[in-house]
Amino acid sequence: MSLSIQDEFIRANRIRALVTPALLAEARAHPPRGGQPAALVEVLDFLRRNPDPELPRYAVLRTPDGFAVVRRATVRGAPPAPDGADRHATRREAEHAVLLRRLRDYGLLP
User: Looking at residue 11, what is its pLDDT?
Assistant: First the structure.
């Protein structure tokens, strides 16, 4: 990972402690546009301000059978690659799946 020393410390000592099953349930329950608990806001802010170029970047695409999570291409102009065969009924479910993937990428989930 290419986090700064300070961000690595924050990830290991602050953010890791905040990521709990209760927080993940809150993330699933609250829309991504406000109204989240402070701990969830802190975790989301950490993920948003620390895009690691070595980790995948995700996007949500609408498909005929729901919403799919894809990995954005590392080369500009190249098409995204599907990240699994899962399809989600709503965009909100797909966005939650992206959150779980990002937490896993940062080693914050098993």
Answer: 92
